[in-house]
C-alpha cells in the first residue's frame, strides 16, 4: 500500500481521520451549548480516562463545536509547576477576541479586557521580576481593584463573572477547555470550582470543560464537596469492536482501500480498542500490506512493527522517566496485576506491592508519590494504585 496515502494518525492529541465512537458525547455537548444559550441551567463537563483513549482529541472536537455555535473559547493544558492564573488569562483573552474584534472594542469589552489584564499581572505580585519580564499582550489599561486581590478564588469569581456578563450582552457564550486538569494545583482547582459554582448559580453563559486521568473526580471532590454536583462526569473508554472497525475502515475507504472482517477482528485483538493503539497499528499494517483489502495475515506481519514503535515512544518514554526505585515499584505492580483474581477492579492494592517487594508500606510512599506526580500511576481508590497507560503492565512484564 502507498505509504504516502496512509490515512492513520497515531499522534499525541492528533485528531484521527474518523472520530469513531464519540457521537453520544458530541451530541450531548451540542445540547449543553444550546441550553446555556437559552438561559437554561447546565453543568460544566469533565472527561476522564486513561492515556491513549482520545480525551485530548475529544476535547478539541468539543471546542470546535463551541466555535461553530459562535461561542468564545480558549484552551489550556494544565501543568503541575505552573500557576493557573497566567494560562487562564491567555485562554480567556482568546475567548474574548472570538466574541468580537477587540481593535474597535466598545467600553464594555475594554473594561473586561482591563480586568483580565489586572488578573494576569497579579500572577507574580507587584514587585516580582517575573511581572517585569512578562506582559499579557492586552492593549488596554489594567482596571485596578478588580480581580487583582491576589486571592485566586476571589479574583477568578470576579473575572469569570465579568467575562460571562460580556458574553451574555453579545447573546453568546464562553467555554474554557482545560486538558490534564488533574495537574491544576489545589488552590487553583478550589478557586475554579468556586467560580463555576457562582457562574452556575447566576445562570450566566460560561462553562468549563476539563479532561484528565480517572482520579480527576476525586481531585475535584477533595477541593470542593459540591463539585460532585457541579460537573457532569463522562468516562471516556476504549472503543467497542464496531467503532474500532469504523475508525479503520472509513479512512481506508477514502483512499479506495478496505479491510477484511478477519483483519478487523485481528486488529481488535491486538489493540483492545484503545484509540491510540488503533491508529498506531493501522499505520504500521497499512505500510506492510501489499494490496487491498488488508488481511489478517497483513496484521500479523505489521503488528511487530507497531509494537516496536509503541515500546519506544508510548511505553518506553514513560518508563525512562522513572528512577530505579520507582521502576521496581512499577514492575511489582505489573506482576501483581498479572495474577490479580479481580481484573474488573482498577489497579492493585498498595499493601500487595509492599508485600511483593518485602518492604514496609511506609517506606514505599516516596516512590508511589513520585510516580503519582509524574503521571505514571493514579490512585484508583483508597488503598489501590493503577497505571495511567493501558497495557503498561503487559509492557513491563515482557521487557523485564
From TrEMBL:
Domain Cytochrome c: 168-319
Gene3D superfamilies in alphabetical order: P-loop containing nucleotide triphosphate hydrolases (3.40.50.300)
Keywords (A to Z) from UniProt: ATP-binding, Heme, Iron, Metal-binding, Nucleotide-binding
Pfam (any one): AAA_16
Keyword Iron: yes
PROSITE patterns linked to this entry: CYTC
Protein name: ATP-binding protein
Species this protein is from: Angustibacter luteus
Spans annotated as Disordered: 1-20
Entry's Gene Ontology molecular function annotations: ATP binding
